[in-house]
Specification:
There is one protein chain. The chain is α+β, with helices and mostly antiparallel strands. Helix content is 36%, strand content 13%. It has 10 helices and 7 strands. A hairpin with a 3-residue loop joins strand 4 and strand 5 (224-228). Helix 3 (49-62) packs across helix 6 (117-131) and helix 7 (143-151) crosses helix 10 (262-273). Bound molecules: heme C (2 copies). The site of one heme C has 26 residues, from helix 8, helix 9 and helix 10.
Length: 281
């Protein structure tokens, strides 16, 4: 598994390509004989739904006798609840390192050194997934009230699609609950411009006759510019037609810090966090 993933996909089978593969194979074999090293936090590559499930299976066999089948811990053995914020790790790498090294002086032993890194990453992914499982997260707001606000007075549907319904001036939020955690969702509502993907930057252009157009930046290259205006209409311009192109990297979504109350924000966050496609394969 580890080996397969380290081969660049679609690399040409030229002499160079083969040489690279051979080097990777050698590195892999050396890896087998070197002592396991601890992880830096470069993110977990093993966090697909498949990995999470594999981690869950392993957890059931090796960890549940102390931490419980639901990972909620066991007071008798002093094994803590792993479904909320962890005391000793704040990332996948942190969990990985606990599993590799154990916690000295406690019943939490290092995992058998013969267990490959990939399997520990899967375990870490499983434990991280517990922290974001809606069943384990207590939110202040009411998802029902949030749904009503979203579609009604909040007017969010004018820009966002949920389950096929809504406007196209903002990202589709149908599965936003799997992408952002409650803190990130709150930030998205209070400070939309804190982090804006280039897809949602806006352009203001002025043509030679002095007409000004403004909208989402759909496409931009050396010769042309395409934008989508507030009515979701597309406009294309040749750069040679334009006297000015201003780019704004802020969000076209208003901040709701002042226009909505704290409890309305909580309701929206509860609703948004509940938006996750039922099926996790
Ligand atoms: C023999 C009982 C036992 C087994 C088996 C066990 N643990 Fe633990 N685990 C503990 C105890 C006790 C602690 C708390 C140690 C401390 O911090 O005092 C702990 C702590 C942890 C922590 C840190 C929690 C935190 O809040 O920082 C993680 C993560 C963890 N275990 C994961 C696992 C995983 C994954 C497995 C299976 C590979 C496993 N444990 C197997 C007893 C166990
Ligand atoms: C004028 C159009 C507009 C309105 C109205 C609007 N949004 Fe947005 N929204 C956007 C755009 C554009 C983005 C992407 C840029 C950004 O991250 O702010 C966005 C981003 C978001 C994100 C983050 C999505 C991500 O993938 O990071 C959330 C959550 C969100 N909006 C929720 C809401 C809610 C809830 C409302 C109603 C209270 C609302 N929006 C109203 C345009 C809008």
């Amino acid at each position: 598994m580890l080996f397969l993933r380290s081969i660049p996909i679609g690399s040409p089978t030229t002499a160079l390509g083969l040489a690279t593969h051979r080097l990777l194979a050698i590195a892999f074999i050396i890896g087998l004989f070197t002592k396991h090293s601890l992880a830096e936090d470069a993110g977990n590559l093993y966090n697909t739904p498949f990995d999470v499930r594999a981690g869950g299976n392993y957890f059931e066999k090796q960890c549940s006798r102390c931490h419980g089948f639901d990972a909620k811990g066991n007071d008798e053995v002093g094994a803590p609840d792993l479904t909320g914020r962890l005391r000793r790790a704040s990332s996948s790498a942190g969990i990985f390192n606990i599993l590799r090294s154990g916690i000295s002086g406690t019943a939490m032993m290092a995992v058998d050194p013969n267990v490959p890194d990939a399997q520990l990453w899967q375990l870490a992914a499983y434990i991280e997934s517990l922290g974001s499982d809606p069943a384990n997260v207590q939110l202040e707001g009411s998802a029902e009230a949030g749904a009503a606000l979203f579609a009604g007075a909040g007017n969010c549907l004018s820009c966002h699609v949920v389950a096929g319904q809504g406007g196209r001036l903002g990202p589709d939020l149908s599965s936003i609950g799997t992408q952002l955690n409650p803190d990130e969702l709150t930030l998205a509502l209070l400070e939309p411009s804190a982090e804006v993907a280039p897809r949602w930057w806006t352009l203001t252009v002025e043509d030679k006759s002095g007409k000004v157009y403004s909208g989402l930046r759909m496409n931009e290259d050396s010769f042309s510019v395409r934008i989508m205006d507030q009515q979701a209409q597309l406009w294309s311009f040749a750069r040679s037609q334009l006297v000015r192109v201003d780019r704004s990297e802020t969000s076209s979504m208003p901040s709701y810090a002042n226009s909505l109350s704290d409890s309305q924000i909580d309701d929206l966050v509860a609703y948004l966090y509940s938006l996750r496609p039922e099926m996790m394969p």
